[in-house]
Amino acid sequence: MILNNKLYVSTGAFKEKNLNNILNECQTTGFQFLELSSGIKFSDSLLEKCKVLEGEMNFLIHNYFPAPPKPFVLNLASTDPFILKLSRELCKNAIDLCVDLGSPFYSVHSGFAINLKPEQLGQPEKQSILASKYVINPELAYSIFLESICQINCYAEEKSIGILIENNVVTPQHVARGKEDIFLMVKSDDIIRLMEDVSSQNIGLLVDVGHLNVSANA
């Protein structure tokens, strides 16, 4: 991600999954701009280390971070009350972390109209053949997602933290099996609709050009 002409590299780009080691590597190489994202274990001690690096490094917080001890699928449009509660709480925790680390905004993935398990993420073939009982009515998913974003945005505004929402992706496998609508904010109309319904200057769009390219070709 590029912010104010500064290139931020995601922790997901490192082969190393230990944040302490990543931070040490950044210090060794003089790298200053790091996006904290999924796949990394976090702790209070690492938070303190990040704070100590204030002035030397700049951090952004993205989506499923800090990851909880027990994995779940972050979905702000879930019809599962427990998963929805966990998802909203994780986002609020991430916003608190933005405050602690001086990050200007928190970026989060758009919701999706299907209830998935962690092992089904990134598996379009498996997702596209899931039984209909796992699929959520797109309008219902949208209404839940809208409420989630409004709640999270209000929380973020109180703490002067911006919110960016990332566009989703659909693949040829999803389209071929009639499941092109299980992910929200893929089409421009969906994105415009959400922005108009939320109607907040605190909300922005994080465009994942890889997602955009795959979806457009699908």
Short précis:
The chain is 42% helix and 13% strand. With 218 residues, it is α/β, with parallel strands linked by helices.
Calculate the mean pLDDT score and round it.
88
Gross morphology is: globular
End-to-end C-alpha gap: 24 Å
Contiguous uncertain segments of 5+ residues: none
Helical percent range? Answer: 40-55%
Radius of gyration using CA atoms only: 17 Å
Q: Helices and strands, in N-to-C order? A: EEEHEHEHEHHEHHEH
SS elements, strand count: 8
Give, in spatial order, the strands making up the sheet with the most strands. Answer: 3-4-5-6-7-8
Number of helices: 8
Largest sheet: 6 strands, parallel
Structural class: alpha/beta
User: Strand-residue fraction?
Assistant: 5-15%
Walkthrough of the structure:
This protein is of the alpha/beta class and 218 residues long. Helices cover 42% and strands 13% of the residues. It contains 8 helices and 8 strands, in the order E-E-E-H-E-H-E-H-E-H-H-E-H-H-E-H. Strand 3 (9-10), helix 1 and strand 4 form a beta-alpha-beta unit. Helix 3 (81-101) packs parallel to helix 5. The longest helix has 21 residues, at 81-101. It is globular. The mean pLDDT is 88.
